[in-house]
Fold these 2 entries.
Entry 1:
Amino acid sequence: MFFSRLRKDIAAAQRNDPAARNKFEIWLTYSGVHALSWHRFANRLYRMHLKLLARMASQFAKFLTGIEIHPAAKIAPGVFIDHGMGVVIGETAEVEEGVVIYQGVTLGGTGKERGKRHPTIKKNVTVSSGAKVLGGFTVGEGARIGAGAVVLKEVPPYATVVGVPGRVVRINGEKTQDLIPEKDDPVMKEISLLRERIFELEERLDKFASWEETHAAPAAQQPAIQQNDTPAENAEQKGENHENL
């Protein structure tokens, strides 16, 4: 049983990594394959109710590979963890055959709730570098999660999800809007408000510029009239003022 699963893991690595040259090299050097083998050992201990030993085994595997997998997680044979540094897979997560997981991926929860709080990843899903899949929902078969995406809700089969929060942008290769919206995107809403504010300020600036053009000419002419007064006229005006006194 152990060796048949190991062969499937090695075959998955050879199938998904173009840099893989032969099975022996994969078995010796691929940290993802090592992490999965250690996880199966820890999972067996966990099911035997040796939970402390199981946790110790999983932490030792984390020290060796940089990949943290809870002993209770259910991972099918034939999963490929590429590079793997920083990968975290939670207690109630389920990963089916053919899934590809890149470095920095988190299959986690969103809080301290109990029960099913980690995602179920169906067959042939690709979870790209740095993606976070958080919650007890299902990612449908053949879906693709973009690098750095934060997925907080269920993903349809053969969908492509990108962004923060994750949005469905393609299904079966065809462009689409997010098919399962829960509420307005707060980022897009804020951007729309900022654009409206910018348009309002631009209109005010245009009105101010037009007002300045119409009132600047009379204001500029007044000093010119005062400068045209001759010294003699100024003296006569002062004399008249003196006589009046």
Entry 2:
Amino acid sequence: MAVVDVKRAESVKMGNGELDRMMGGLPIPSMNLIEGENDTGKSVFCQDVIIGALKSDLSVRYVTTEMTTTSTLSQLESFGFDALPYFIKGKFKITAFHSKGIDWDENITSNYLAVMSNYIKKKGDADVIIFDSVTYIATHSSQNDLLNFLSELRNFVDQRRRVILVTLHPFAFDTNLLIRIRSMCDGHFVFKVKTLPSNETARSVEILKLRGAMKATNNMATFKVEPNMGIRILPFTAVKA
């Protein structure tokens, strides 16, 4: 397997060849916003990025508020990818953050965001860093604290040539704050659940912005999540009305 030099590589390839053909990978460096409601495919997309990055010998830090280390490894295995060897070697590191049972307030959240920012800069660095998701923390933080945290990530991306993905649920943010968050990012992906003409349920992803992309943006794809595969892009004939 050819080793990717992140200092020279132009993009992080996806684990799914169909997604790669659609978007040409995630540009290096870039900060990307993954937006969508519950169960729209945000985490599956992030896990596809993990697979592509690890296959290219890039290091990955996955910060999750919704899964454990074991469940993350198990889900990747269910998509036909054994991430355990990468985890053992330290190429794939998982930071599982459990938010239940904590009496959150602005002060606690502010301290957490500051600690997490310093941790990523000093010990939690990786070629690809994923925050899945920031919604729960953001709903208990001040807008200034959240924007400062994201601004520091933005600077980190540019200084270290990293790829960062941040997932969130848009219902938890007011419109003006969302606009400011989106403006910080190079990539903006929106995930939705949709009903096909056959009355089956599927998911869709729309690429609203992807600065530095190898291919044209403003693409939309409809997909299903399947065992031993993960994301399967559906043909246009299956989704058109």
